[in-house]
Amino acid sequence: MTTFKDKFPVYFHQAQFHFHPKFEWALGNRIKHPETTKRVENIYREIQKHKKLFEVISPERIPLKAIRDVHNYQLLTLYNTAVAIPEGEEFYPSVFPQRMKSLPDPTNLKHAGFYCFDSGTPLNRDVLSAASWSAAAAYEAANHVYRGKGKYAYALSRPPGHHASKDTYGGYCYINNAAIAAKLLRKKGRVAIIDIDFHHGNGTQEIFYNDDKVFTISLHGDPREYFPFFIGFPSELGAGRGEGFNLNIILKDKMGIKEYIKALRRTVFPNIKRFEPDYIVLSAGFDTYKLDPIGNFTLETEDFFTLGKEIQKLNLPTVILQEGGYYTKDLGKNVVSLLKAFVE
Ligand code: OKP
Ligand code: ZN
Asked: Per the count of CB atoms within 10 A, which of 184, 319, 329, 332 is most buried?
């Protein structure tokens, strides 16, 4: 008798295609928004090309409780307010009160700046749906691993999540997908989140800053030069019970796979081994790619396999979540290259 191996699960919902941010303000210039549906289309297409390896699964609706575990009521109310924005329009806040004395009202779109920290993350009628389904994909990928259905799962989570905190959105992120996944997994054990996106995972760091059961690790470009600019330094170690459970590693401009692996082996893995996690959540950004228009590293397509193998060799149940990556043409190839390291 022939036995068939389960295919590698890819969680994705069609509603994630229906969100089209138009612009972002980048250093004073209005540019076309980099977080396009072309990104998901390219990944989706590449995954369809490997039908023998992957199975696309549409997630169920995410329990509201799972989102409320990560975000506060006001932020979600604001997304709900944005559902009333007319079709084809989007809203960018232009006043950011920085927690000055204020009475923010999340049912008033003009107050959006209280909850937002950049000008690249528009609100429109589709945000709530697209971000919820993105979170649902992450939740089900985590649940797949949580229930022991398989050791690995991937969520094509788009919009991405790692910049969204409990009460703020920004950096193209509205709901923190990695936090949704980690909150579920931490019910059964310790979780290490490894963020390999080019940008610091500030939202994820903040959500677990006081948590000693979730170790947040981010490797990224220098925040003095790159988004999110004001956070992501090695001196940020966690606080309270969470002290010692946050790790930031700044990598040099133009850095390639050799230096990346060196940072993993020298700093990340010894810390992970000491922590003894039961699960890994991998915030997988591909804006470290050599041709990426936003990131400034020099990884090649094959390097994502090498990088994935390093993490796979930890031999732990791993949930892989899509974060950034803006060189659309090669994005799918890069994603599949990383995922192949986990295909058994
Ligand atoms: C989101 B993720 C570049 C301006 C930067 C924000 C970058 C958000 C990155 N023209 N704007 O971490 O990939
Ligand atoms: Zn990024």
From this structure: 319
Single-letter amino acid code for the residue at 118: D
* pLDDT for the residue numbered 28: 85
Residue 2's pLDDT is 55
3-state helix, strand, coil in the chain (%, to 5): 35, 15, 50
79-106 pLDDT, tens digit each? 999 999 999 999 999 888 877 667 899 9
Q: Which residue has the tokens 């692996």?
A: 261
Does the C-beta of 199 come closer than 6 Å to ligand 1? Answer: yes
Percentage of the chain surpassing pLDDT 90?
Answer: 94
Whether the pLDDT of residue 172 is over 60: the answer is yes
Tokens representing 156 are: 């094509």
Is 310 close to ligand 1, i.e. is its CB under 6 Å away?
A: no
Q: Convert 294-331 to b/e letters by CB count within 10 Å (16 or more is b).
A: bbbbbbbbebbbbbbebbbebebbbbbbbbbbbbbebb
Q: What is the dihedral of CA 124, 128, 131, 135, to 10 degrees?
A: 170
Ligand 1 centroid – CA 278 distance (Å):
31
Q: Of these residues, 162, 163, 199, 200, which one is catalytic? A: 163
Residue 101, phi-psi category: left (phi > 0), alpha (psi -120 to 50), beta (remainder): beta
Overall pTM > 0.85? yes
Phi, psi (rounded to 5 degrees) for 9 = -80, 135
In short, whether 292's Cβ falls inside 6 Å of ligand 1 is: no
**Residues 8, 141, 161, 244: is their CA dihedral positive or negative?**
negative
H/E stretch holding 309 reads helix 301-312
- Type and span of the H or E element at 192: strand 191-195
Residues 267, 313: Cα–Cα separation, whole Å = 16
Report the pLDDT value the prediction gives residue 186, as an integer from 0 to 100.
Answer: 98
Nearest to 206 by CA among 238, 174, 178, 251: 238
Instruction: Clarify whether 163 is annotated catalytic.
Output: yes
